[in-house]
Amino acid sequence: MVVREFRKSDKLADVCYDIRGPVLDKARQMEEDGQRIIKLNIGNLAVFGFEPPDEIVQDMIHNLPSAAGYTDSKGLFAPRKSIVHYTQEKGIAGVGIDDVFIGNGASELINMSMNALLNNGDEVLIPAPDYPLYTASVALSGGKPVHYVCDEQSDWYPDIADIRSKITPNTRAIVVINPNNPTGALYPRELLEEIVQVAREHELIVFADEIYDKTLYDGNTHTSIASLADDVLFITFNGLSKNYRSCGYRSGWMVVSGDKRHARDYIEGLTMLASMRLCANTPGQLAIQTALGGYQSIKDLVAPQGRLTKQRDLAYDLLTQIPGVSVVKPKAALYMFPRLDPKIYPIADDQQFAYDLLAQEKVLIVQGTGFNWPQPDHFRLVFLPNADDLTEAIGRIARFLEHLRKRHRSVAAVAA
User: Fold this and answer.
1) Distance (Å, rounded) from C-alpha 373 to C-alpha 377?
2) Cα–Cα distance between 165 and 167 in angstroms, integer?
3) What is the rounded distance in angstroms from the CA atom of residue 370 to the CA atom of residue 204?
4) Taking a C-beta distance cutoff of 8 angstroms, is the pair 253, 210 a contact?
5) Is the per-residue pLDDT at 17 higher than 70?
């Protein structure tokens, strides 16, 4: 008797999410064996002692008894109204209640926005390096991810000429991640205006990921790209996960703004998909109004003596002391994206590099190709662990890299 094998869909062939990939599976196995892993792989703030504001927690507890029912498919009125007010603070014009969709984190809404837009073969411009959910969502929706280069020599800013060179008749949209994950870059207004002009000329939708818009260092400020024009269609994503240390609450939102006149059918598609999932989780929605209207404690963490700032500076100083390692100092977000000089570290497979680092030094990072960076010469780490753990982790990375340098010198000597 022939037993039928059940295989995953062909639509998953080009989908990967290495932030939670095979190297993490190895880390879990090692932990089950009793080994302690220092995790620098994911921006899950709670596990590093970053707690959500007390007032958010108390409001959710207070409202939980009345949170058992479905809400409107786009979300409750009060949190959506507070999001409208927030868009006004950010200078985004013309946003009403019906333009706001609340989701189970921004991730759900990113998937929804791509599913509602893309037909087979439609192209979306996505930064390289990227947050890999965008590449995966476009591919899963039947579209084709096309990566434009962000230039490490120019503070990881998008290369406008490269963006223009990648546009074809099939291009439907461009993704802008600002502040950026994984590089920590923060884009100036002038650069954003150039991207808006490209979108205007080619009638593209701008998908703006601004989930880190308050996690800013050194007195920097954030400009919402949707505030710069009303003749381009913008879809802006944000949420509570990072600025409010509430990852597990799964509370995010999507705002439609700009030129909506020619997007009625697309917006109808978004509304249809929002209705199909019934609604976002109600307890998470109940945290939004309090979060946006309350004391912004993120400012304390990113102040000159704040914990995030001090840990960013520590990680930067320790990494740049390692021979052959260079880092663009992050202006925002929770990550840095160090470069390994290929002449000193001739790495052919950076996933194997991450795997070996984990196996030998019990430090978990994510390889650069996991963020759709084309060369195996970068990796991403979070600087969320406390100073002692961060110092220990980067010390282990330094020791591992020292072994790689010695091995490379030995191989080169034999070859000579």
Assistant:
1) 9
2) 6
3) 26
4) no
5) no
Instruction: For tokens 């921006």, name the residue.
Output: 43
pLDDT of residue 7: 81
pLDDT for 106: 96
Summary mean pLDDT of the chain: 94
Which is nearest to 309 in space by CA: 331, 328, 325? Answer: 331
**Residue 264, H or E segment:** helix 264-276
Q: Cα separation of 289 and 56, whole Å? A: 9
Q: What angle do CA 74, 80, 81 make, to 5 degrees?
A: 145
Name residue 93's amino acid: A
DSSP, collapsed to helix, strand or coil, labels residue 82 as helix
∠ Cα 114 163 14 (to 5°): 45
> Rg of the Cα trace of the chain?
22
pLDDT at 1: 73
Q: Are 317 and 171 in contact (CB under 8 A)?
A: no
* Residues linked to residue 303 through DSSP beta bridges, in sequence order: none
Stated pTM of the model: 0.94
Long-range (24+ apart) CB contacts under 8 A made by 58-61 are: 59/286, 59/287, 59/290, 60/249, 60/283, 60/286, 60/287
Judge contact between 389 and 313, C-beta under 8 A.
no
Read off φ and ψ for residue 205, nearest 5 degrees.
-80, 140
Cα four-point dihedral sign 200, 136, 154, 315: positive
Instruction: Tell me the C-alpha distance between 331 and 217, whole Å.
Output: 5
For 211, phi then psi, to 5°, come to -65, -20
Is residue 345 within 8 A of residue 338, CB to CB? The reply is no
Q: Which helix (H) or strand (E) holds 237?
A: strand 233-239
Q: Which residue has the tokens 């100073």?
A: 387
- 53, 297 in Cβ contact below 8 A? yes
Which of 125, 383, 91, 108 has the alpha carbon at shortest distance from 270? 108
How far apart CA 43 and CA 381 sit, in angstroms, is: 9
Question: Poorest-confidence range of 21-25, 289-293, 346-350?
Answer: 21-25
DSSP H or E segment with residue 336 = strand 335-336
At which residue do the structure tokens 């100092």 appear?
A: 329
The neighbour count for residue 228, using CB atoms within 10 Å, is 19
Confidence of residue 5 (pLDDT cuts 50, 70, 90): confident
